[in-house]
Amino acid sequence: MGKAKVDIIHSRFVPLNMENVDTDQIIPARFLKATTRDGFGKNLFRDWRYENDDETKPKADFVLNNNNFTGSILVAAKNFGCGSSREHAAWAIDDYGFRAVVSSFFADIFKNNALNNGLLPVTVSEDFLQAIFQQGNEATLTINLSEQKITIDTTGESESFEINSYKKTCLLNGYDDIDYLLSSKEDILAFETTH
Amino acid sequence: MYSLSLLIGLEIDFMSKTLFEKIWAKHIVKTIEDGPSVLYIDTHFIHEVTSPQAFNGLNKRGIKVFRPKQTVATADHNVPTLNQHLPIKEELSRMQVEALIKNCAEHAVDLYGLGHPFQGIVHVIGPELGITQPGMTIVCGDSHTSTHGAFGAIAFGIGTSEVEMVLATQCLLQTKPKLMRINVEGALNKGVVSKDIVLYILSKISASGATGYAVEFAGSAIRSLSMEARMTICNMSIEMGGRCGLIAPDETTFNYIQGREFAPPAGDEWNKKMAAWKQLHTDSDAIFDKEYHFDAADIQPMITYGTNPGMGIGITENIPTTETINDTDRSGLSKSLAYMGLHQGEAIKGKKVDYVFIGSCTNSRIEDLRMVASFVQGKQKASDVEVWIVPGSKQVEKQAKEEGIDKIFEAAGFMLRQPGCSACLGMNEDKIPAGKYCISTSNRNFEGRQGAGARTLLASPLTAAAAAITGVVTDVRELLN
Ligand code: SF4
What we know:
Oligomer: heterodimer
Strand content of chain B: 15-25%
Largest sheet of chain A: 7 strands, mixed
Order of helices and strands of chain A: EHHEHEHEHEEEHHH
Structural class of chain A: alpha/beta
Low-confidence stretches of chain B: 1-11
Shape of chain A: globular
Strand content of chain A: 15-25%
Largest sheet of chain B: 5 strands, parallel
Distance between the termini of chain B: 71 Å
Number of strands of chain B: 19
Bound molecules: iron/sulfur cluster
Radius of gyration of chain A: 18 Å
Low-confidence stretches of chain A: none
Largest interface: A-B, 54 and 67 residues
Strand order of the largest sheet of chain A: 4-3-2-1-5-6-7
């Protein structure tokens, strides 16, 4: 049950220059009623995307509705993914077609959820984030997971990012935590008898 | 070799530890080199919204829940709070609740669903049934699992993939968070309750101030609080970004647990537990990565004006301006205020309120209802305000009726509904209409949280009750004699 492998992501990006983007915005609660993991992408940022919840009325000033910005990398300001633990937020971003989210700060649970779904959270410095936001819509980013490096291709500026080495191995190979835990059953049983 | 390892063992035992570290160490199954640890989970709560995909995952693998007796389920997010005996009207909500019933039956998990005398909001029922106990590791696919930390437990919210891991193995892969202590010392002012303490801390350290940390709340002001009040504070530790919140257990904790449905039975078992629980405190010279000190005397009744829980002010203060606001919220101020229909620099006191919601896992316990009842007794709600009181559980509802609290609400024109998450999140039938102002005892004022376009002002049950009486944002101290 592995996930798609992640290594080098080279793409244009969608800039969402807002702080404290919470998971209620990423996917509003009324869309959490499904019992499967699929199809959340169409409701990603639903209330920022459409006027009065009406798909025929996209809000022109919201970046996902601006055809000039596309790509498989979402770039957002500080404290992205705060609030509810709903993994549906990571599913929605992934289902929409993003493969990585770049921010200067991620909320803990969101970060875990993203990693568990092969969606790469990349934490950069505030300065580097601002440098990305200053790029035009044609600019591309390259995220190299093996080297833990993110580069603004147009300017050549780059920065290294942190990732837990275990999680890195999982992403590079498409492993799941659950596979690891299931393979640790003996240890778990032993723990239970002594605690 | 033997003596060396003995020596190391002794050294470790003599090292000062925090409350968090003591519990953490007891639950480590093993640690991956340069990686996370396998953390054993004592109790796993589940609800209908974040569990179906996890059960699907188990079914696909052809495995059953590993430790069904350590798993407890309830239906809370999607349930209506009126006419709970009737089928749920909204089809998708009904299907989600039905999926939970089916999954629990197939996997032998105890479900306190609609109609069960224990049903209620997951973070209300765990403690009130005595399932939540000191020293435990507790998880749930719900960020407000931090609530249970009020008992001196490591309790945190997880995503659905992690729910699947716990169902499958009773374990999670976790990295130890950094440690923070927030001390609040001194006596609380009149009209100030635990919700005000936590909104005050949030306004000082911001909605991301504790991200990456496990937060221990300490100090004489915290010690003086009841269990219900402590739960309110730990509940909102996630609003600071905290991985979890904890408070060391003490006599208040033990007295609360004793005699509850699933509490250890009196006698040997209870005494043994008590002996272990009494060890659960931070050693005097243990070190935290970060520490804050606040003075209870500085806290007044609080209210939020913006769209994250860190955007709060004292009730008599004016909404900040771009010049006066802290750095963290500066860039979002205009957008927040535009959504809220409020303006920089204006007073919040006196603002018209349309709805009052007293409920949610933050403030729907019997003590909250008692507090509101004793305040509104003999008073009448303002005619143009809708007031919803939603008990956190069937047991709270029952107790409120036994104590005659329902009669006081009825006389005041308040509506006592049935248990559930209700208007805390716009997922069930209870939604606040677009553009309307709701003073709410819940924990999140995010855009659209209580319904698309709804405007939320977070406050304590007392401050919410005061607004119910006057119809405007009110300083409750003016109504207290
Ligand atoms: S009451 Fe609100 S915050 Fe609490 S569990 Fe329900 S939806 Fe979540």
